Amino acid sequence: MNGSGGWPLTVLLTPDQKPFWAGTYLPKPQLLQLVDEAARLWREDRVGVLSAGEALTAHLRQATQNRPGTPSRELVQRAVSQFAQSFDARWGGFGPAPKFPPDTI
Questions:
Q1: Could you say which DSSP state residue 97 is in?
Q2: What is the C-alpha to C-alpha distance for residues 88 and 94, in angstroms, rounded to an integer?
Q3: How far is Cα 52 from Cα 33, in angstroms, rounded to an integer?
Q4: Which pTM does this prediction carry?
Q5: Residue 29 CB neighbours (<10 A)
Q6: Least C-beta-crowded within 10 Å: which of 18, 42, 44, 50?
Q7: Are 84 and 78 a contacting pair, CB within 8 Å?
Q8: Structure confidence by residue, pLDDT tens digits, 68-87
Q9: What does the pLDDT look like over 5-15, one tens digit per residue?
Q10: Is residue 22 a contact partner of residue 41, using CB atoms and an 8 Å limit?
């Protein structure tokens, strides 16, 4: 939705499979709270949820239509070089810790 993401991915959909909320990792208490809030909104403001799903779907369609062309070989080589410099060969991934959110939140 904003050009970046992570895993695990949590996406809430309308019955016609249009996303109206998306986020990455949520600890169990926050995920359960989100589900309760989504259920409440579905009961109390179904039109708003459906409208959000329509708006988000339209935004995502527009974003995919406006993608630039294929990157040049030089650009790809520069990107590989930059990623290689920040790769953590010992622990995996890119950059320093934390590599994944702690489950103690």
A1: S
A2: 6
A3: 19
A4: 0.57
A5: 9
A6: 44
A7: no
A8: 788 899 999 999 999 888 88
A9: 667 889 999 99
A10: no
